[in-house]
Amino acid sequence: MNPRTKLLKAVTSESNRSVDVGLLAELFDNTTDMAFFVKDAEGRYIAVNDSLVQRHGWREKSDVIGKRSSEICEGDLGRIPSQQDQRVLRTGKALLNQLEMQWYRPPVMTWCLTTKLPMRDAEGTIVGLIGFSKDVRTQVEPEEIPASFADALAEFEQDLSPEVTPVWFAEKCQLSARRLATLTKKVFDLTPGQFIAKVRIDAATRLLRETNLSVSEIAHQCGFYDHSAFTRAFRKATGTTPRSFRQLAR
Q: Is residue 219 domain-shared with residue 98, that is, in the same domain?
């Protein structure tokens, strides 16, 4: 049985009628802020929406179908998603809301929250995965943001102190941890921890693109305790090392 047939049998309704995964891709074709995909047990694209194709600089879905992430996107930005696929397919453990940087359209990059779920057949065997990467672009009216939160955000972005944690933010805003989490989810569609990581990495990417500061100096300025901690966090978020990102950006 070929991979596509296995997936068609795996994606079923309650009445056990097969649903073509291509219909799911068509459903997401008008969601320009989200890349949708279905992959087989080898990590190859079975179905994608138009947004995924366009954001990687390809023209047609047929240019992508049958390929792996590493084959449609060069370097670590393609390799890391393929490694994620292998881990989900091997372990059956879902990847949920992974904050990472991806191409929007080369050379433009955007922050995404990526989710990947394993797909199983009737016997429970993993036959592929389904997922999406949604751009972090939530819009909120200015008056919905408390002044205390805006002040804390400004202080953090100006200093990027390593002491800043979700607890620091909650205390600075005079908000409970639950209220802070609700606020960051509504404003940024991120948890407090994800938001803090995003601000640090955003600042680092700007410094890598626009200055000649060393990686160690940038790590210090962005609130990381050392070069190694910065490199680990940067790779986790962007799929590449700071030095590789600088070369790519330039």
A: no
